[in-house]
């Protein structure tokens, strides 16, 4: 129930801020409003993450970040029988720029985010010694929400975005056990840290 309330309040807040941004004159300031960014750090987690960001005319930006995960190299995983990990996700956020003259070179911001991730773990039972081991698929639907802040740097067409934050995460499996906050099956308070590089279109 608490998770549903947090998600509802976050969606409502994003909607109000989006309507407020749209009421501003679209002719100023004269900037490149479409940004395409890439997260290099998530490649170490077998995840390709690309972010699209639209800058509103006045102190606001809407961000959509789809991702895809695919890996069969999991020798150091928390569960020895795990053979592959695959899935997809969508992360959405709204940025409120804090500078008096937004979208200059240095742009601090803060705002809410929502996330959803579908993950499927394919595993075998290493305890059962048979010629052909049975294969199991564990499916997780992961939901999260929170607040993040950061700095967006714009150098002509080149952009750099560093962000940190905090939120909560919940998923559908009640029996899973995680070893750290970065596991797919972790449930609870989560940190947020990321770095995006990209271009203004």
């Amino acid at each position: 129930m608490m998770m549903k309330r947090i998600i509802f309040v976050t969606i409502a807040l994003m909607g109000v801020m989006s309507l407020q941004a749209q009421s501003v004159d679209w002719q100023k300031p004269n900037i490149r409003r479409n940004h395409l960014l890439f997260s290099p750090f998530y490649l170490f987690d077998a995840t390709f993450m690309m972010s699209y960001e639209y800058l509103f005319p006045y102190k606001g930006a809407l961000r959509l970040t789809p991702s895809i995960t695919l890996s069969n190299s999991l020798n150091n995983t928390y569960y020895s029988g795990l053979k592959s990990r695959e899935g997809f996700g969508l992360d959405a956020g709204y940025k409120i720029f804090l500078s008096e003259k937004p979208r200059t070179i240095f742009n601090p911001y803060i705002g809410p985010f929502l996330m959803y991730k579908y993950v499927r773990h394919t595993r075998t039972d290493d305890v059962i010694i048979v010629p052909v081991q049975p294969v199991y698929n564990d499916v997780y639907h992961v939901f999260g929400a929170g607040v993040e802040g950061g700095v967006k740097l714009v150098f002509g067409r080149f952009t750099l975005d560093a962000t940190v934050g905090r939120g909560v995460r919940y998923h559908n499996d009640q029996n899973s056990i995680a070893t750290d906050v970065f596991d797919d099956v972790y449930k609870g308070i989560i940190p947020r840290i990321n770095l995006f590089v990209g271009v203004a279109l």
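Residues 2-22 form the longest helix (21 residues). The two ends are 41 Å apart (CA to CA).
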